Every structure is written in structure tokens, then in C-alpha cells.
From TrEMBL:
Name of this chain's protein: Choline-sulfatase
Family under the similarity heading: Belongs to the sulfatase family.
Superkingdom of source: Bacteria
Matching SUPFAM superfamilies: Alkaline phosphatase-like (SSF53649)
Cofactor list: Ca(2+)
The encoding gene: betC_7
GO cellular component: cytoplasm
Occurrences of domain Sulfatase N-terminal (ranges): 29-401
Amino acid sequence: MRKILIPVLLLVLAPAVRSATAADQPSQPNVLFLSLDDLNDWTGAMGGNVQAKTPNLDKLCRQGILFTNAHCSQAVCTASRNSVLSGLHPSTTGWYTSTAMMRRTYDQVMGEHKMLPQHFKDNGYETLAVGKVFHQGVSDYRERTDDFWNVTGPNYKVSKKLRARGEGYGGTKFYPFPKTGSQIIDRYGKKYADGNSLCYGALDRDDMPDGKMYDELIAEWAVEQLQQQHDKPFFMAVGFVRPHVPYTAPKEFFDMYDLDEIIVPDVPDDEMADIPMMGKSIAYGTLRSGDHHAVVNLSDTYWRELVYGYLACVSFVDAQAGKVLDALADSRYADNTIVVLWSDHGQHLGEKKHWRKQALWEEATRVPLAFKIPSVSKPGTQSAEAVSLLDLYPTLVDVCGLPAAPALDGESLLPLIRDPSQTREQPVLINWYYGNYAVRSDDWRYIRYRDGSEELYDHRSDAAERTNLIGKEGFTEIIDQHRRWIPKKDKLPAGSDSWKGDALDRRIEKWRGDDSVPDWLK
């Protein structure tokens, strides 16, 4: 099927190629691979928050197809991005956690298989990257960076004075922090150092290195590349950092919202009553009193303030993405460039009394995913089929007519892009660390934790996932249908030969030992 499809597709793209400004345009389409960090469904097009102002992302979604039920493979930066770029699921690779472990096991896990940009580079594309594409920037594997990219953009240089505001938070790309540092540490003291990033603040230009945030530099670099002549088809990865914590952005983006009018998520007091112990341990977070407890007890308004900061960051990164999209529209490459928009995972802002990604619920796993493919995708179309970020790799290979990469765990979205009324049977498999899984189908979310406990939600009537249906009558068949997608044998973390438990297990053991589950999680 694929051998027939690729030439047909390239013929479909041919009129766009001939209409390009430059007579010597490469015949294969270019790719603008546009990612945003920690962006959940809080965009106008996705509808996750009615107050979100994202005109540029919404415009792109109207120009192509939006997948409204797309999900990551694991809701944390390192694992998600390496699964997207390798095309392999964490349950295949064992890449659940640290980048250092991924480096040590790269040869063992990848073998002859290639990361997405290397596959394009080795098949005639010029590959360019800027910002946060992998977890640590344009590459998580320093010695392999040249294998992935022909050209890379600048890093972000932050002064010691500005770094001091971050209270030791790693990665200068996430800076600057608020003028007075983290509100969590200011309120609770150094023993709450893990809360250094759970903060927000509007910034003046003199709060930023040379008056600019990193995402602004990323946009400028990408715009410059689009104004240059490229003699080969290009694959350009532009990885924006916001709305990742800290929730800081230039003041004008905070001015777009009225703090007093900000709506916080509706979270019932008994939200966690039907959640198993492993789910409660995940929701607890990292702060010594629990993340949600720290937020709601800092002040009567801090929850609203964090939502305010997140929305400002969403609008800020929307503006930066808009600069790149406008530059593409004004360039010689406008009619021959595929645009794909994606986020590595979602973000909780108090739902399920949780304040990070790093979970198996909807807010953590659901992401924006949109394609604009000249002469292929139809403007203003949507698909509600459950799809995975793992599908990015095979889709782009398919659309660009590259040789297949047979090790991939996803499947091409091209049939759905060409005809959004089509359906697919396979749901999305999602991990959270070792042995914890969610299965997201079109209408259901099933969760099975490594201790055997479960959750089930019917998204037709319970989009907020408030009622766990496990143990209720009438759902045995639905549960069995979803259980069959769980791997029969859990893949040990790469580089390990046994599982010895982790912080989630130890917390549960303590709670059970001294009957100390916090009241706010009961």
C-alpha cells in the first residue's frame, strides 16, 4: 500500500511545488516541525480553557487538520520527546526517566534505527533545529548532534544575577524567574526548594538577557532561516520553551488578562476519593506537604495567580509561533512546506489536585496536534480519533516519500488527514514510569497501575474524569477491551535488570504503615 501511496501523494503536491516563487525549488516538501513545551488543551481551537487567547495557533489549526484527541506516550519532557523523535514507545525502549540513562543505553536501544531528523538528513534533507527539540535542547546526545542536524540555533545565555532568582533550577532555557524569585520558597522557606519552579510573574525587558526571552530569540532565528535560500528540501525543528514553568513572560502578555476574572479549574473536594493509592501518590507531587496543599495554602489567590501566569505564557508563545508562521507565509516556501504543530505533553493546573504533568490523566496526556499539508489536508477539518505523538514519525516519512523506518511503533496519520471521517481501531498507550499505563480510546480512558489497581472514565459523559467506574456494574467488557492493549510483560527501565521500586512506592508504603494519607487526598 505504501509503495503506491507515496508517488501519488508527491504528484498531488506537485502543483504546489510549481507555484513556488523560486524556480529551482526542491521537489520534495519542506517540513516545519513546530513544538511547544507543556501546552495542554488551553487554546482557542482545543477549547480546554475558554479564556485562552491563541489567535496564531488557532489560525494554523483552521488552515489544516486538528487532531482533537491526540496524546503523548509519557507525560514528562525527556521520555515524551525521545519517544516522538525515535518513533518508539517507552514500553519498547525502557526510556522512562533520565536523559543520562538514555545516553548510556542509546546503542543498545536504538541499534541501527535512527532518530527522526537523522532519517531526514540521511535521505537528502537539510536539517535545522533551534530551541527545545529534545529535552536538553537541539540534542540529548552531544556526540550525535551532527548526525541529526546540519545547522543549529543559539543557546540562551543568562547572567549569574538572573540565575540566582531560580534558586538552583536547572536549564537556563527556562529562565528568567520572577523578580523576587519563587513565591513557594518565599512563603515556606528553603525546605520547599523543590517548588522553585511553581511560580509566576510578569517581566520587564530589563529582567531578561539583552531584553529578550529565549522564545523570542528562537522565533527570530527561525524567521531568518525562512528568509534564506535553501537548495535542498529542509526539515526545520523549532522548539519553543513556554508555557513550561516558571510562568514568566513579558508584562504585555499578562496585560491581556484580568487577574480578578481568571477562572480556576472546578475541582470537587472529594475529587480523589475514588482514586487508588498509586494515583494519589502521583498527584501528591514533590513538595514535602504535597504540591496542591502548598498552592492552596500559600494564599487565597495563589491558585488563580498560577492559572493567570500559565495563560500569559500560552499567549506569549502563541505570539512567537505566529512570527514564524507569518514568515513562512511570506516566504518562497509557503506553498511547499508541511507544518506540524505539537506539544510534548499536557499540564495539570489543579485538576485531580495535581500541579505537574507526570500523570496518566487527561490533562497530562492530551496535546494539540495539527497538520497543514499543501494540497493534501483540508482547511478547517478535525479528527476526534485517538492518536499518538508516536504517529508523527511515520506520518512525515509517508508524506515526504522517504524510505520506511520499519522499527516504528506508531502508524501514519495520512489516511485520516486525507479523509477525517475515517476511523482506526488501535487506541493510544501511555506510560507513567515503569509498569503504570493508561489506554485512551475515542471514548474511554483506562488506567492500570503497577500494583494492579485501576481507573476507568467515560469521556462521553465525564470529560473531567471525575467518576472512576472501576467496581461499578456494566463495564466488564469495556475494561477487557482496554486491558488487552496493556503490554503482557513490563519493559524494565533501560540499563536495569530488576525493579526495586521508586519514590511512588515508598510514599505508599509509608502512608499505609502509619495511616498518613493526607486528608486532602482522601
